[in-house]
Amino acid sequence: MHDDEQRFWRDKPLDALTDREWEALCDGCGRCCVWKFEDADSGEILYTDIRCASFDDNHCRCQHYAERKMRVPDCLDIRSFTDAQFAWLPESCAYRLRHAGKPLFDWHPLISGDPASVHRAGISLQHKTVCGDHFSEADIIRHIIDPDEPGNDHAV
Ligand code: SF4
Ligand code: SF4
Question: How far is ligand 1, taken at its centre, from the CA of residue 130, in Å?
């Protein structure tokens, strides 16, 4: 692999990425695959540990990625996001970081060379989500989480 190809995650703007580079940029954290709410007053995005029905908690990935829009119409296409919509993504998200011109963290698999580093760093939601069936509104509030809570030391 040439150096230029190795550094696409650092040097190329998002809209110049090939499809393959775009997909490789995802760190596999799964944070975009849980139910979230926007606080009407503050605009803050609140995370829950309730997963999308298509999210595989064991492997921390979408089970139906190719046909996800058919199965989950609410699933958003990051590639067509407006500037404002990038704020809906977690601050650790590679797409949000690169959209803001920031570098990836050392735990990103493209930097570490190890897909599991995102899990070891405490960034991913692997084994941390619950099934989204049968939740009342009161239940949902009890499932709000802080994905950056202490204990996530971000070490690779
Ligand atoms: S939050 Fe971003 S980096 Fe993490 S899984 Fe979703 S798209 Fe990929
Ligand atoms: S359909 Fe797949 S990619 Fe979309 S939110 Fe659900 S698990 Fe994530």
Answer: 18
